[in-house]
Amino acid sequence: MTLRILLADDHAMFRSGLKAVLGTQDDLCCVAEVADGQAAVDEAGRLAPDVAILDVRMPRLDGLHAAERILGRPGNTTKIIVLTTYDDDSYVYRALHMGASGFLLKSAPPEETIAAVRIAARGDALIDPSVTRRLISRFAGSIAPPASSTALERLTAREHEVLMLVAQAHSNTEIAQRLGIGDETVKTHVSRILAKLGLRDRTQAVMYAASHRLVAPLPAPPPSGPERLGRRRGRGGRCN
Questions:
Q1: Using an 8 Å Cβ cutoff, are 46 and 70 in contact?
Q2: In sequence order, which residues have a C-beta less than 8 Å from that of residue 2 and are 6 or more positions away?
Q3: Does position 216 have pLDDT exceeding 70, yes or no?
Q4: Residue 201 forms beta bridges with which residues?
Q5: Could you give the CA distance from residue 208 to residue 215 in angstroms, rounded to a whole number?
Q6: Which parts of the sequence belong to the Response regulatory domain (predicted)?
Q7: Domains of the chain
Q8: How much is the pTM?
Q9: In a 3-state reduction of DSSP, which class is residue 54?
Q10: What is the per-residue pLDDT for 225?
Q11: Residues 30, 31, 34: CA angle, nearest 5 degrees
Q12: Residue whose C-alpha is closest to residue 95's, from 235, 232, 201, 218
C-alpha cells in the first residue's frame, strides 16, 4: 500500500529536499506540496492524503491552525505530523490536544522522517526524543499532579513500567527488548494504558507522565532516532 503525503512548508528548498527523501521509498508518495497553511487545508480537503506534514510557521495560516482545521473536518482520516525547531516548544503542548500524530525536528535525519510517516499512518504517534526530553524537563517540575490518582491506581505494575518507558521516548521494539516481552504484548499494554487513563495516543501519555511526575528530567543522550527502520530505496511510491 502506497502512503499518500501532503507537504506544507514555506521554504521551497526544504520542501524539495523532503520530497526527494520521501521519494526514495517505494511505499511513500508526495501527492501535493504547498507553501502556506491555508493551501494545506484546501489540498487536504481535496486529496484526503494519508499523512500531512506541516511546518509550524507558515504564512496565511500557521501549521497548528491548519492542523486544527484538517483534523476537525467530519470524517477526516488524514494524520498530521508537525515540523518544529528548537525554539518551537511552546507550540507542542497545545498541539497535543489537537490530535497531531507526531512532532519532528526539521533537522531530523531522513530515516527518522520516513519512520515518522509510517508510524503516523498506522495510527500510532511519535515525538522526536529530543523534543520529548525537553518537554519532560520543562513540565515535570512545574506541573502539580492532580489531587486524584485513581486512574493511575488502575494500572498494573507492568503497565506502569511501560508508561514510564513510553514517556522516555522508547519505541515499542525498544520497550519489548528492555522488558523481555514481545512487540505485540507491548502494543497491548500501551492500548490498555491509554484506555485506562483516557488518553488518545502516546504523545498524550508522555505529557500525562510528566504532569504526574512519573519521570524525571532526562539527560541529553547521544543522537538517536525515534524508531530505527531501514530505508527501502526505490523510485518512490506510485500516486493514485
A1: no
A2: 26, 27, 28, 29, 237, 238, 239, 240
A3: no
A4: none
A5: 10
A6: 4-121
A7: 3-128 (3.40.50.2300), 136-211 (3.40.50.2300)
A8: 0.71
A9: strand
A10: 43
A11: 90
A12: 201
Q: Starting at the edge strand that comes first in sequence, how are the strands of the sheet with 79-84 ordered?
A: 28-34, 3-8, 51-55, 79-84, 102-105, 126-127
Q: Are 9 and 55 in contact (CB under 8 A)?
A: yes
Q: Which of 76, 75, 132, 73 is nearest to 102 (CA)?
A: 132
| Cell numbers at 73, concatenated | 473536518
Q: What is the pLDDT of residue 235?
A: 55
Cell of 205: 501519555
Residue 169: pLDDT above 50? Answer: yes
What is the distance between the alpha carbons of residues 60 and 66, in angstroms, rounded to a whole number? 10
The C-alpha cell that represents 27 in the structure block: 511505499
| Residue that is written with C-alpha cell 487545508 in the block | 41
Cell of 59: 504564512
Could you say which DSSP state residue 226 is in? S
Q: How far apart are CA 169 and CA 72, in angstroms?
A: 27
What does the block give as the cell for 179? 522488558
Which of 71, 36, 34 lies closest to 56, judged by CA? 36
Cα distance between residue 103 and residue 97, in whole Å: 13
3-state secondary structure of 190: helix
What average pLDDT does this structure show over 131-158?
Answer: 66
Helix (H) or strand (E) holding 66: helix 63-71
- 39, 134, 213 from 119: Cα distances, Å: 25, 22, 27
